[in-house]
Design a protein that fits this description.
- It is a single chain.
- The chain is of the alpha+beta class and 150 residues long.
- It folds into two domains: 3-43, Orthogonal Bundle (Arc Repressor Mutant, subunit A), CATH 1.10.10.10; 63-137, Lrp/AsnC effector binding domain/regulation of amino acid metabolism (RAM) domain (Alpha-Beta Plaits, 2-Layer Sandwich).
- It is built from five helices and four strands, in the order αααβαββαβ.
- The protein has a four-stranded antiparallel β-sheet, with helices on one face.
- A hairpin with a 6-residue loop joins β2 (92-97) and β3.
- The N and C termini lie close together (10 Å).
- The mean pLDDT is 95.
């Protein structure tokens, strides 16, 4: 990946709906060369996917919460089972297996507290292997970026 690839990726992270011709002009390439570079970045996996980033509040999921989860039983199969259950939930926007006292961190995008309550019943009670969980409701977001500066 060279300087021009990084320029293309930075442009795409800001606005992937730009035309190839606009991007090519911005980075000083012909449109066909720019398109070949973008295709190569896709096939090599540098570009994972191209998506629309929604405004959660306007899309009806205005409540954001972070949940730390401690499992009763440890080991790969227990972690994988819990992550499979968690990632199947619509409200779970991110799920990470982490080091330290916490086993899993979840980011939730919720419609309302009723959805949160129902999700807690499904994920954190009875036969889900959860010892304890702690929920932090986000009051204000100071920074939330999807782009990585290259």
């Amino acid at each position: 990946m060279d300087r021009i690839d990084r320029k293309i990726l930075n442009l795409m992270q800001r606005d992937a709906s730009r035309t190839n011709a606009d991007m090519a002009e911005e980075v000083g390439l012909s449109p066909s060369t720019c398109l070949r570079r973008v295709q190569r970045l896709k096939t090599t996996g540098v570009i994972d996917r191209i998506v629309a980033i929604l405004n959660p509040a306007r899309a009806g999921r205005g409540i954001k919460a972070l949940v730390t989860v401690e499992l009763k039983l440890h080991g790969e199969q227990h972690m994988r089972r819990f992550l499979d259950i968690a990632t199947a939930e619509d409200a779970v926007s991110s799920a990470w297996s982490v080091t330290g006292e916490t086993d899993v961190v979840l980011m939730l995008r919720l419609v309302d507290m009723e959805e949160y309550d129902a999700l807690c019943d499904r994920l954190f009670r009875d036969q889900t292997n959860v010892a304890r969980f702690f929920t932090m409701m986000v009051i204000r977001t100071a920074k939330e970026e999807t782009a990585m500066r290259l």
